[in-house]
Amino acid sequence: MSRMACKLSYDGTAFAGYQVQPGKRTVQSEVEKALQEIHKGARVPVVASGRTDAGVHACGQVLHFDTELAIAPERWVSALNTHLPDDIVVTNAAIVEPDFHARYGAQAKEYRYYIQCGPFENVFRRHFAVHIKQALDVPAMQTAAKHLLGTHDFSAFCAANTTVADKVRTITHVAVQPSEEGLLISIRGTGFLYNMVRIIVGTLLEIGTGKRVAAEMKVILAGKSRNLAGKTAPAHGLCLYEVDYGQPLFVNETPGQVSMN
Amino acid sequence: MSRMACKLSYDGTAFAGYQVQPGKRTVQSEVEKALQEIHKGARVPVVASGRTDAGVHACGQVLHFDTELAIAPERWVSALNTHLPDDIVVTNAAIVEPDFHARYGAQAKEYRYYIQCGPFENVFRRHFAVHIKQALDVPAMQTAAKHLLGTHDFSAFCAANTTVADKVRTITHVAVQPSEEGLLISIRGTGFLYNMVRIIVGTLLEIGTGKRVAAEMKVILAGKSRNLAGKTAPAHGLCLYEVDYGQPLFVNETPGQVSMN
Lengths: 261, 261
Hints:
The structure is a homodimer.
Chain A: E1 2-10, H1 27-38, E2 47-48, E3 57-67, H2 73-83, E4 88-96, E5 108-117, E6 130-132, H3 138-146, E7 150-153, E8 168-178, E9 182-189, H4 196-208, H5 216-223, E10 238-244
Parallel strand pairs in A: 3-10, 5-6
Antiparallel strand pairs in A: 1-3, 1-4, 2-3, 5-9, 5-10, 7-8, 8-9
Helix pairs in contact in A: 3-4
């Protein structure tokens, strides 16, 4: 029996999210269906680094599963891609230690949020970036984003119906960078609460469009109430970009091998 | 009565091509439906610079129509976008001379063909670029492409079932450029035969993958037979990038305003 880790990218548009849900098309169910075909009908459960919501994309999702098949990692990649639908692509596979765990072993994650600015939507990016007509005040967004760095209680940036008790998380990197078509917001941290990135982006967009001033970010964070923060930004601008396990899992791995840019 | 010209971009994935076909979803039928709604039920026929096939995209398609509505050009843009589905976006509108004709007035067109290279398909670009696993011999493709420049009988690069008599066309620009994810092939000319760009690209790909040598391009052109050229490249890598009317049609126009890159 070996434990395999795989890195995958997916276009979240046509999925009801990552996690299995009865009667719905999800990333997990498609991957498990592919594995079941490869294992001649035997069920092979997979464990991912975490869920992504409906419409959210990934280019660096990592999952693990156990198998008795003796297939070389590079052949696992092609075997899986042969059995997967064309909106999921496995880019890497490796044999890992038997105690590797895709969820509990994740030390940090990076999410990227793509925004296109301008009078018209770029029709080719409409599923992969959120379109904002107004010009954005990027320096104000950058100033506000800096308040998020460090260890804080992120209750204000967590969906109100979340039951998790400890809402303290650490953000190690946040950047609001102008891109060719608009803006790229990247956020790296040791863990994220439900909808945390999308609420942060929604709040930054309200600052960028002048509805709020940059200094409010600090007040919102200190207030620890979801009501204080901005709207949850749409799912389709968000991408799980990278999961960090403290060591490279795959041979020849380059971050962002498959980019949404 | 004024004659309006519009520039539009569309994601060709979900269309059975540009031209109206009974019972099928086409770009023209969606635009005419939007115009009919704006004109309170009256039919408004549109004339485009030319057709595009099923799966082919556009970021610079131009069309004209006649209207009795006195709406300012910038308001035409938003009125049309309000009534159009989200895979068609009008980016420009202008009142033109009554004798302007989107098809007969077109002096040149530029098509772009997008290729992604590498071991895995970029899932986010799968509808907008053709994926080739093998490394391509770009210098050979560039050498071959140069043979296309100028005025030639392009019979070898025209779908065999075409009835058009005169197959002489002029290519004024052709470039095979490495891009971040692969290759961009751009071809500009005074006119194109049916499937011409896709057969040229298919032939260039056979040269790039070493199935043919660059010098064959000249032989194929001289042979004037469709059988001599390569396979027709897939539709989804192709984009009608720009139509040139010898003068700017729209205010604030920048070529490639909406880019597939």
